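2024-03-11 09:14:02 INFO queue: dequeued item histidine kinase, len=493
2024-03-11 09:14:02 INFO validating residues
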Amino acid sequence: MLKLRSFRIRIALVSAILAGSALVGFGVISWWLIYNAKVSRLDGALKIQLMRTARPRGENQNRWEFYETRLPRGLQIQAQTPIGILVIDKNGNTIYQSQSWATDLKVNNLWSSRAQGSYPLPPNDEGRLSETEQEPSAGQGFEPERLPNIPPPNIRLATKRASGDTWRVGAINSPRHRVAIAVSLQAIDQEMVGIGSIFLISLPIVLILIAGGAWWLSGTALSPIERLTTAIRQVTVKGLEQRVEIGATDIEFVELIQVFNQMLERLERNFKQASRFSGDAAHELKTPLTILQGELERAMQQAESGSEVQQSLGSLLDEVHRLSAIVRKLLLLSLADAGQMSLHLIEVNLSHLLIEMTEDIEMLAPELDVQTDIAPKLLVKGDRDLLVQVLQNLISNAIKYNLPNGWIKIQAYRQGTNVSVTITNCSKDIPVNERDRIFDRFHRVAPTSTHKIEGTGLGLSLAREIARSHGGDLKLGQTIPGQTAFTLTLRST
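2024-03-11 09:14:37 INFO prediction written
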């Protein structure tokens, strides 16, 4: 099962599902209650009309025809709604059946075996209407008269299907006759279909609004997390001093932000201690190394030329030079880490520097084929000595890690507002797991042969820090079989 990784999407979906379930349940219950209310109102009107038919009046057909015309008003329904009346005497003979009565509508089961609580016959009941119960003339009202305080007749109501329609049928059993009134529920069904359609149309809109509101609300609630994420992305050697402001953050996230700020504070303190230690150590080592170098040089001058003592002193002096170079690089790296590397900025012509270094390559490694493509007047603003150190490091690595009778290609060109210098050499392929660590301090690529390659593992790391202090960068090029490329990018003037 696919698990959604986005918390905001899950919140929006869960909110929409819960709200949708509640709305659907509310809609179904509301629809059912509205339908029952309409049917109940119709049942009440049916009972009133059936009770009127139970009163002893004349049984002539005109009376029932007139009564049928007045039924829509009495039932408070539309005139075009189909209504059927069936009147049967106590012997089972049909007294009156309206034209709209469905022939397959069976109502015999609704009439009880005997009339319960039926009206007593008045003294003037001789098969005619009394003066107070004459049919009103056209245009007169047809209001029900006040009924005597006696038990109501037995009325039964039911819903039946007949002639492809649904009918609400009410039946009453009186001493003289049995009457059934059937009202089509088509109008009510159409109204309920309209209500259902409105609900179905509004439901998706409401769900979209709820999902959008949940998305916005969750985004607002998670804004402190986004601020933490932004702050974490900016946590670098030079960004440890920043802190995330609490402000009006919800109380649930206050502790998280406080813990994060405390972590940054500990990291900043520990990093400054480590950086200060390496800088102080490198600074303190400079003096004894300088003294040791001077003493070794003087001892070499006093030793017999070509003697074993002089050779031993020469080896020691080489190691002191190497140690001094490491100390200088460590001091520069500690300054770069602390953001205190001082730069003597001047306008530097990289084209001239690269041409001079190309001549040095031809003297240092005459067996290598040197190819150049250097654009003229590539001017940058930077510290000339440090930039020379970066270029010398790249060219030195290109010579040391080259293949016998290999080649070196130096390309320099302007790219927009930047100057790019790419130094490529023929070499063994760098393993994939080594490429990510090539700029790590004291890390050196494992040699692919028994030939020992001198180095400290600090050159590339220092070169990249110098490039970044100038607002540029140093990157290892794309993996191409049989060659290695480094690209130095600086801002042009």
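2024-03-11 09:14:37 INFO annotate: The mean pLDDT is 78.
2024-03-11 09:14:38 INFO item closed
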